[in-house]
Amino acid sequence: MARALILAAGRGERMRPLTDRAPKPLLVAGGKTLLAWQVERLVAGGFDELVINHSHLGAQIEQAMGDGTRFGARIRYSHEPVALETAGGVAQALPLLGDAPFAVVSGDIYTTFDYGTLRRHVEAIARDPQATIAHLVMVPNPPWHAAGDDMGLADGRIVRGRERLTYASFGVFHPAPFRDVAPGSRLKMFPWAYAFVDAGRVSGELFGGDWDNIGTPEQLAALDARLSR
User: Residue 17, preceding bond cis, omega within 30 degrees?
Assistant: First the structure.
């Protein structure tokens, strides 16, 4: 049994007017919602205990995804009356995630990454969370984020002050750091998590396969065209 949290609470302002009618993760590309693509890939990778957080039009997400039976998973939901950002959303969902390390993935990306490969990092973090508290997947900088994030890779660890890469918006985390975040806090994952990076406690890897962070209607249309071919 492996757990994962899918972050689906964002408003998707840049996707308007599409997100005036539906949550961003329920937008469709290649005949499936972005959220369905993520759930299917997580289940294929052995993550069958899923939590989805939601806020804007969240009832639509629960109606669309149900209890997860048709995906071969169990899905539970963490509702946020006001979207709490990434780290805040994880902290809010902790009661549903338990005490073991878990994957956290964005609900509005598309990727062919094999989530099953993250399970060894779940096990490694569980064995020695003092050495490694999290594992992040990075991607080459896309044209729309050419400068990258304030993170790179060196000998399998996430570091700063080196060649910059882009966080792929998924990884594995131990629950311990989020227990210090007060429930209901609005808190982004970065720069909050840089303290653990600077302490040398975050491992990482570079993924060079298909990865799309859907931020605009044009990006969604391009992904839809590619997947529909």
Answer: yes
What pTM was estimated for this model as a whole? 0.95
Q: By C-alpha distance, which of 24, 206, 174, 48 is closest to 110?
A: 24
Q: Where are the domains of the chain?
A: 2-228
Q: 86-96 pLDDT, tens per residue?
A: 999 999 999 99
CA distance 38 to 44: 10
The answer to whether 168 touches 199, Cβ cutoff 8 Å, is: no
| Crossing angle for the helix pair 34-44 and 58-65, to the nearest 10 degrees | 50
Q: What is the 3-state secondary structure (H, E, C) of 177-214?
A: HHHHCCCCCCCCCCCCCHHHHHCCCEEEEECCCCEEEC
What band does 229 get if pLDDT is binned at 50, 70 and 90? confident
**How many CA atoms does the CB half-sphere of 74 hold within 13 Å?**
6
- Report which of 93, 180, 167, 97 is spatially closest to residue 137, judged by C-alpha positions: 167
State the architecture of 2-228 in CATH terms.
Answer: Alpha-Beta Complex (3.90)
Which residue type does 96 have? Answer: L
